[in-house]
C-alpha cells in the first residue's frame, strides 16, 4: 500500500581558509574542511499518515578558535569560582595567571557525527489544521571536540595525563597541590545522545477576526552519555552524576534533564497580534561546593 514514496539524498563539502591575528598581534592562519551526507525516505501509506527515516554522516575539522593558541591569561583562577581538588579533600584551587593555559589546541583530531532520525507524522482530515509528530533521534559524535573548564580537567586528571601538574605530596595527602592546569580544547572519545520528540500543532484560521496557532513540544532524553578516553567509563548525564564544565555534553549546569518542553499560543489579527509561551524543565542534579566565605 503506497500513496506516496519519496527518496532523497544530499551532500555538502566545505573547504575554508582563515587568516587573522591574536590579541597580542601574532598572525594565525588555519585551513579546515568539513563534509555532510544525508539520505532517507518519506513514506505515506494513506492520506494523513507519513513515516520518515533519515541518516546523516558528517566529518568536521576543528575551527580556528579551537586550534589557535589562546591569549595568555591575565587574571588568576579565583577561589570564588568553586574549583576544588577532590584528591586533597575538596581543597579550593586557585592559581596565578602564569600557572594555567586555555584556548585552542593544535593537536585536536577531526570530529565525526552519525545521526539517525525515525519519525511519524499524523495529519487527520477529521481534525482540520492539526499536525502531530513523534521522532526518535540518535546522535553519535566520535572524537567530540569540547572546551573544558578547570574542574573538568581536575576531575579527569587520570584520563588526560599531563593536563594537571602537581607539587610534592603534603598535608597528609598522597598527592601534592596543583601547580599547573592545561585547559585547552580536547577530544572526548565519544558522545552519544538519544531522545524522543513529540510535537503538536493546531491552527484555527477563524478566531475573532484572526488566526490562532497552538504549538506544544515535549522532549524525553533517553540517554546522554560520554566517554572521555578509550579506557575511561561511559558516563550518563541524564539525571546522572554531575560532571562540571564539559561544554557540549552537559548543556545545562548539572547535566541534562530527563524531560523538557515548551508551548506557545499565538493569535494574529489583521493589524496586530499577541502571544503567550511557557517552558518546562525536569529536575537536575547540581553540585555543592564549599567556597571560602560561604556556608
Major sheet attributes:
10 strands, antiparallel
Secondary structure tally, helices: 2
Mean pLDDT: 85
Q: What's the total number of strands?
A: 15
* Low-pLDDT residue intervals, each spanning 5 or more residues: 242-254, 287-295
Q: DSSP strand (E) fraction? A: over 45%
Shape: elongated
Helix residue percentage: under 10%
Gyration radius, to the nearest Å?
A: 25 Å
Main structural class: mainly beta
- What is the terminal-to-terminal distance? 67 Å
Element order: H for helix, E for strand: EEEHEEEEEHEEEEEEE
Description:
- The protein is mainly beta and 295 residues long.
- Helices cover 3% and strands 53% of the residues.
- It has helices at 64-67, 150-155; strands spanning 4-21, 27-46, 49-60, 84-85, 91-92, 100-103, 111-122, 130-146, 164-166, 178-184, 186-204, 211-227, 234-236, 259-268, 273-281.
- The strands form 3 sheets. Strands 1, 2, 3, 7, 8, 11, 12, 13, 14 and 15 form a 10-stranded antiparallel sheet that branches.
- It is elongated.
- Mean pLDDT is 85; it is low at 242-254 and 287-295.
Which key features would you list for this structure?
295 residues; mainly beta; 10-stranded antiparallel sheet; 3-stranded mixed sheet; 2 helices
Helix/strand layout:
Layout: E1 4-21, E2 27-46, E3 49-60, H1 64-67, E4 84-85, E5 91-92, E6 100-103, E7 111-122, E8 130-146, H2 150-155, E9 164-166, E10 178-184, E11 186-204, E12 211-227, E13 234-236, E14 259-268, E15 273-281
Parallel strand pairs: 6-10
Antiparallel strand pairs: 1-2, 2-3, 3-7, 4-5, 7-8, 8-11, 9-10, 11-12, 12-13, 12-14, 14-15
Amino acid at each position: 500500500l503506497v500513496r506516496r514514496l519519496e527518496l532523497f539524498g544530499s551532500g555538502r563539502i566545505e573547504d575554508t581558509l582563515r587568516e587573522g591575528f591574536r590579541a597580542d598581534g601574532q598572525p594565525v592562519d588555519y585551513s579546515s574542511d568539513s563534509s555532510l551526507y544525508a539520505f532517507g525516505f518519506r513514506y505515506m501509506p494513506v492520506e494523513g499518515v507519513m513515516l520518515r527515516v533519515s541518516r546523516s554522516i558528517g566529518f568536521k575539522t576543528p575551527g580556528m578558535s579551537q586550534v589557535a593558541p589562546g591569549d595568555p591569561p591575565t587574571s588568576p583562577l579565583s577561589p570564588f569560582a568553586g574549583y576544588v581538588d577532590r584528591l586533597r579533600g575538596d581543597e579550593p584551587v586557585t592559581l596565578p595567571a602564569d600557572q594555567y593555559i586555555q584556548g585552542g589546541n593544535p593537536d585536536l583530531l577531526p570530529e565525526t557525527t552519525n545521526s539517525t532520525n525515525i519519525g511519524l507524522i499524523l495529519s487527520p482530515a477529521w481534525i482540520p489544521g492539526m499536525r502531530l509528530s513523534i521522532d526518535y533521534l540518535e546522535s553519535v559524535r566520535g572524537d567530540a571536540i569540547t572546551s573544558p573548564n578547570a574542574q573538568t580537567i581536575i576531575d579527569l586528571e587520570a584520563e588526560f595525563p599531563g593536563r594537571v601538574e602537581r607539587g610534592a605530596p603534603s598535608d597528609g595527602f598522597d598527592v601534592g597541590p596543583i601547580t599547573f592546569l592545561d585547559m585547552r580544547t580536547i577530544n572526548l572519545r565519544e558522545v552519544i545522545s538519544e531522545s524522543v520528540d513529540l510535537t503538536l500543532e493546531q491552527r484555527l484560521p477563524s478566531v475573532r477576526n484572526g488566526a490562532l496557532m497552538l504549538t506544544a513540544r515535549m522532549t524525553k532524553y533517553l540517554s546522554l552519555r560520554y566517554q572521555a578516553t578509550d579506557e575511561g567509563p561511559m558516563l550518563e548525564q541524564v539525571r546522572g552524576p554531575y560532571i562540571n564544565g564539559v561544554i557540549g555534553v552537559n548543556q545545562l549546569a548539572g547535566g541534562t534533564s530527563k524531560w523538557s518542553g515548551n508551548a506557545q499560543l499565538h493569535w494574529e489579527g489583521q493589524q496586530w497580534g499577541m502571544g503567550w509561551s511557557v517552558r518546562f524543565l525536569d529536575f537536575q542534579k547540581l553540585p555543592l561546593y564549599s567556597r571560602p566565605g560561604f556556608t
